Amino acid sequence: MTLTVAAPASGALLAALSPATRAPGPGPAAGKPARRVEECMGTVFSIDVRGAGVPADVLDAAVRRLHWVDATFSTYRPDSVVSRLSRGELTAEECPAEVREVLGLVREAAAASDGYFTEAPHGFLDPTGIVKGWAVERASDMLVAAGSTSHVVNGGGDVQLVGESGAGRPWRVGIAHPLRPRQLVAVVSARDAAVATSGTAERGRHIVDPHRGGPADGLASVTVAGPRLAWVDACATAAFAMGLDRGLAWLESLPDVEGLFVTPNGRTQHTTGFPQWGALT
Amino acid sequence: MRRFLYALLGTVAGLGGLIGLKANLTPSDAVAETAAAPPAAAVAPSTEANAPAGDAPADDAPAGDAPAGTAAKTATGKLATNPYESFQVKVTVSGTKITKVEVAGLKTKDKKSEQIATGALPKLQQATLAANSADVDTVSGATFTTKSYRESLQSALDQAGL
């Protein structure tokens, strides 16, 4: 395999070698390529801005936004807006507009997936299945608004791509093999797209099949590619809950997404349009 | 090519912090980590004769002018140190492809650090090789935890700035 490296800039690479000797950058208003890694929502977010880049304060604001989303939507924090909404201490009208937006997306996804995506997978209001993807999408939008034309925001394995990684080169997204740590099952090449994966590899059987009332366990992972991450993330969760046959048929019926399924014994199946996005490794 | 080597050496230099973290794991964790490590023939810590301890850092010497398709060349990184161990990374490049990542001259503080280092190094070395050979910019997978991120392909990419 030919190996090419899409390096953002030699300066960034040298900085990775010797951060202490990194030259001071230009003023705060100047955009530049940058990479930011941030723990949030119990996972790690990676922001990789190429091209002309964005000012550092825009990255700071995007990261603050992620933490705000976590604090607002967390079901682990009893004082979060969503926890209070769930207990009936707040009405939807009293919540920030972002909460109503996400709840609207949740209901759309539930209606489109015959209830396999649900707002209360564990018996209480829990929009977690869509919040991370939505938050990544919004952080990406903030970078676009600040002038970025080339970046990827990765929230714990759910990815929003903007533009391409370099001139004439689409972003290349490795799809983690659910059964073989640190190996890839496929590579998706795309511009201006989103990729999300649901599976049991990291957190066990945590996705519920709401129609059976138990954990969905017929698949090792489902990867969905499409235009926008909030929707793509919800599709991956719902398709995982559906299992192979129903999930595959459902993704085929949707106009704007493609999917790759990996079964617990390592077999792969994909929608007919998936090869336009990616290739199995 | 040179940028590529810098990137890789940057990645493995970043291992120091990871191993430092791993030194805080309980013994049972350490055993599990070691047991889960892949076969490490190509990435095992090495003290072989062609990488003597006095070998000068050569991260800018041999490979920078190597045209694609020539015989395998090696480059040795600077000494990486952390509170638990020190080591150098040796990279073998054939044409434009990295074929081997080795750790030379591993010196650890104590027996436990040595066990942890020998268990942990191959996992991130393997991740570095995999991420580079697949030529990917980012990785999609089931949502990792903050702990498992540190051994992931995405972590290798983030550290290298690839």
Features:
heterodimer, A: 281 residues, alpha+beta, eight-stranded antiparallel β-sheet, three-stranded antiparallel β-sheet, 7 helices, 13 strands, 32% helix, globular, disordered N terminus, B: 162 residues, five-stranded mixed β-sheet, 6 helices, 6 strands, flat
Question: What can you see in these coordinates?
Answer:
The complex is a heterodimer of chains A (281) and B (162). Chain A has 7 helices and 13 strands. Chain A is an alpha+beta fold and 281 residues long. Chain B is of the alpha+beta class and 162 residues long. Mean pLDDT of chain B is 56; it is low at 1-69. In chain B, helix 2 crosses helix 4 and helix 3 (27-36) runs parallel beside helix 4. The interface between A and B is large, with 56 and 46 residues.
Largest interface: A-B, 56 and 46 residues
What level of helicity do the residues of chain A show?
A: 25-40%
Gross morphology of chain A: globular
The quaternary state of the protein chains shown equals heterodimer
Largest sheet of chain B: 5 strands, mixed
In what range is the share of β-strand residues of chain B? 15-25%
Uncertain segments of chain A are 1-28
Structural class by secondary-structure content of chain B: alpha+beta
Write down the secondary-structure element order of chain A.
HEEHHHHEEEEEEEEHHEEE
Question: Structural class of the helices, strands and pairings of chain A?
Answer: alpha+beta
Mean pLDDT of chain B comes to 56
| Total number of beta strands of chain A | 13
- The strand line-up of the biggest sheet of chain A is 1-2-3-4-7-10-11-12
Task: Tally the beta strands of chain B.
Answer: 6
Radius of gyration from the alpha-carbon trace of chain B, in angstroms: 15 Å
Mean pLDDT over all positions of chain A: 86
